Amino acid sequence: MVLATPRLGTAAIRRLGELGLRSGTEVVILHRTAGRGRVIATGTTRIALDRATLDAWPAEVAR
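^ Ferrous iron transporter FeoA-like domain-containing protein, sequence as received from the core. Prediction below:
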């Protein structure tokens, strides 16, 4: 998956960017969490995201 432009607040976008998640970043979905979130990977980094963040951040299938 490739992350599109998020519909999040400036602080959230900045913090996720610090973690390596930006528009255009290719990610792999690894696991579902109990709260309907997901664990995603980009490179060697693994990050758990809650459902609200996922809903506000569209992604497209990588080609």
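Strands lie at 2-3, 28-32, 38-42, 45-49, 59-60.
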